[in-house]
Amino acid sequence: MGLRIANNVSSLNAHHQLMATDSRMSKSLQKLSSGFAINTAADKPAGLVISEGLRAQIGGMEQAISNSQRASNIIGTAEGALTEMNSLLKSVRSLAVEASSTGGMDAQQIAANQAEVDSAINTIDRIANTTRFAGKRLLDGSQGFKETGSNSVHTSIANYSVRGAQFGSASTINVEFNITQTATQGGTGQISDLSDGSSNDVTIRVTGSKGSEIFSFNGGTSKEAQAEAINSLSDNTGVSVDTNMNIKSTEYGSDAFVTVETLEGPKYSVEQNMSRGKDIEGSINGARVDGSGLVATSSSTFFNGSIEMGTTQSTGTVNIGLQESGMKFQLGADTNPNEQKTIGIGNMHSTNLGTKVFTEGDGTTSSGYLSSLKSGQNHSLAVDADAAVKIIDAAIDDVSSTRAELGAFQKNTLESNINNLRVTTENLTAAESRIRDVDFAKEMMEFTKNQVLMQSGSSMMAQANVSSQIVLGML
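Now predict its structure.
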């Protein structure tokens, strides 16, 4: 063997192996102390890219869960206030029903009931004005939707409105509605009248989708008088008659019908006209709608809501511009329309609840709403307790419908979204953990191996240094 002093190759080799072992041992210590298999980009570049992408997605989903929970709290706040409105309206209805029993109440008692009604309506307005979440008013109409349809739209589709609609993120959307079947009334037909000189008295039962009423007419009663009598109770029956004795339902759709039954006297020409109306049919933005009377409901991605159509529209396609207002919630990790939902809450003041049109005895019409029940108004308890009850019923329907829309949004959108996001976050975290987290058992085995190699390498380097000293014995 050659003995050299200038270059101790054995020592250099031992040093090289020792440094490599020291580097591996340092990385093992870093992984074991941090718990991550990837601490720097050099550890695993491709794995780092995938891991950081998953971390960003997980962070977005965790924030989306927080957003959904906050949205649920907002909806719960609004629904709680509406629950109290429902309670007040039920109390007001009891007072109005009591006041309608004029035979058992005097003017002073009715006035006392009226004072309670005034107080309850004022409270409803106060709730509408003061219900807030983080300073944002919820029930004053500022969180509702506003339509921006052009005049041409209004001439082709009359009296449409958007109710409980949930939009995507666009500030304006076009709703393309293709009508294939217009909604129709039920029970259309003509009944014979008694104005032809007949001396026979007639008693008939008229039944519609709202209920039944019995009418008795003397022989020779004019058809105008017969029509007026039947129409005076249209709110109870859902049936109307024109001066030519054409009878039809006041409602539209498959639930609307008319039945005329003769109880006494000669039979009317229309005995059992049970033909029902038809619901509106068509599509919104290419998606088939669910029709109920004049109301078309769509559950497509960019328009999830209902449009109440008019009665004179023709089959075809029209565009309706609807401006988004309401409350927009980010419910996903990405800010695209599919992961955003907006829900609107209408104006819940007493001037906007229970809106109802009444036909007066002289044939004129008048409008009523909840605030018209207050003292000195057209439908106060002392003036028209019967109309007051109908207005309150309509107001209860308004509040209950809004509560139902909010409840459906909270349950079917927010709570389902939270559950889905939690499962997805769990799975993504597991995937990210598989890439980024260290396997302690495997890494501890690697660390132990490097620790032994470090000790043996140090020993061999010492032996290599000693071998050079043998040369001194030859000098």
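Residues 149-160 have pLDDT under 50 and may be disordered.
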